[in-house]
């Protein structure tokens, strides 16, 4: 009865206090409310921190903004109250997980006020919050000394204090990072990609706190949805699904219908999900801790009867075999602190189903089918045949679309551009290069007005310059001006990879290398002579694979390959062979496509390229490297075999109305083959 009455009293006090805090009041009223809430923390701590409710969230949301209040006394009371909130949370839960996520959300709400820009004085108030919490943590003597047991408990007290200090300092460091990043986040609202990168950086700062990481990934997902970057939103949901699966695979190892490999189960969908394997070290630690806790609880039950004044009461639930080392560092993520609302089977299903819808909207039907396989496994175990029936219907629709693509025009996954930023006005992005993915309708000449509009309030139009790859070679950058480098790039694959990547989906999925080419001549003048034409191929490697959680990814490596004239010839022939191989590997070879490739290779008016390579390089082999000549000859022989195979396939596919074209192709091939064999034969003699 007493507990029930206390709970009712607390509810009435808090409801009234929360209502008063939500409306404008004088500093006198606000100060009084903070003092009342301080009393509640000391009197009803167990109800606030141990029971399942939203009281901690409400307290952080309503009190935290008062750190910027115009009255100094109110600010001091607020900082002291927030310290007490942190301490009490640790006292009752032996961790700061809940308070950390609530304070990070409160920071987000306060810094993210779109209607204000923070003044210098207010930034000082933020700084005062950090310094006050740190000072109180280090100076405040909150551990009561029991003289009777002082010697026995001194070691434990020291460790408890060290753990608390360490965790508060870590908390403040994380919050400071979030605060600085949030200032940038809302400073870059005009730039979606940088905005997204900063949100992702905040999420990555919490790789050791799944609850908070999940929250910030949610914010990033909403941004991607708002920008209609549906493929990227789907990848975020897959990351969240991987986090949940990683947790569930450890928490419930006997539930075989769940993704048994945790985050690895999603590697086929996206390689970057392996970043979510932060639960990997938990199994042994958690099991060992549970066993130790059981033993300690039995021992404590026998000993605590004679120790009513035991100073363990200062930290309810404190265990000497907890999750910290002697320096107060966290050994691993405590499974008990995981938010069951987000990390549950229900949440996993919701994330997977939402990712399917996002993949569908983004045109990634193949990936949606992979997700269905995971869901079907879960519902098959539950004998949920209604859901399974719906899933199979949706799968059929997706595969019907993919079948239609085999005979019609392929989907478009947009265009890729290398975009570099140079100039101090770009701040975060200065000196960095990125690969951007834009929708199909955005061409390279659309980018200039797009970026001019984006930076119109930051950079004077006459100070913003756009340059291309050729201009950038010998360009002198003015440090007072801003430059944006624009280059069209395409996904890069090795010869072996190209043969296996047939569909447009395969050419745009799990891609982290891109290239562009520049042509030049040995003579330095304009020339079309094949023995004078060189090519420079630049290969850019991105930090993550596309599609990723943002529509741009930073370039982390650049490789330049210079091709001599004979190497250009070899590369040209190899590319043609690869194009034919891709056509051969298709489920249904398109006759028109095959005809176009054969006509472009064999018919007299357009077959100058390969024959010219033979005329120049194979008729005078002494001028060139022997190894390269041998490679060129082998490439020509492979080229002939490939064309012969294509002609045979063409004869099988065409109707009676195209026999004349087939005969013309066969005749042209014989002439072409004879000339190539002539050059190779001369060289052998």
UniProtKB/TrEMBL annotation:
Give the UniProt keywords, A-Z: Guanine-nucleotide releasing factor
Q: List all Acidic residues biased stretches.
A: 307-323
Similarity annotation: Belongs to the DOCK family.
Q: Where's the DOCKER domain?
A: 204-685
Region named Disordered: 284-329
Ranges of Low complexity composition bias in the record: 285-306
Instruction: Please give the Gene Ontology molecular function terms for this protein.
Output: guanyl-nucleotide exchange factor activity
Q: Which GO terms describe its biological process?
A: small GTPase-mediated signal transduction
Q: What is the lineage of its organism?
A: Eukaryota, Metamonada, Anaeramoebidae, Anaeramoeba
What this protein is called in its record is Spk1
**Superkingdom field:** Eukaryota
The record, for Pfam families, names: DHR-2_Lobe_A, DHR-2_Lobe_B, DHR-2_Lobe_C
